[in-house]
Specification:
Pfam families: YtzH. By secondary structure, the chain is mainly alpha-helical. Helices cover 76% and strands 0% of the residues.
């Protein structure tokens, strides 16, 4: 059963929150973020105003997948993680 766009948003926020709180994560979480964002970007139920935030999360996930120092990448994006979750919360 596919996830609804609201379920996808909830999962996206959960992963971003975990990265922010724990200051660590895994490559598989970054891959999951990428899949979620790709799906949400083509979803007609997603307002265009949130798509720039999703693109930033996509870039973050891409970099996270290929960096040798994932935890440093997450720590460097602490402010962004908080802002992205806040912006997504405003729109959903």
């Amino acid at each position: 059963m596919p996830l609804s766009h609201l379920d996808q948003i909830t999962l996206l926020k959960d992963i971003l929150n975990n990265h922010q709180v724990d200051c660590c994560g895994s490559v598989s979480e970054c891959e999951q973020l990428e899949r979620l964002v790709k799906s949400l970007l083509v979803d007609p139920n997603i307002d265009a105003s949130v798509k720039p935030v999703l693109q930033e999360v996509y870039n973050y996930s891409q970099h996270g997948q290929y960096t040798q120092h994932l935890n440093s990448h997450i720590e460097a994006n602490q402010d962004n993680l908080s802002q992205w979750v806040d912006q997504i919360n405003i729109n959903f």
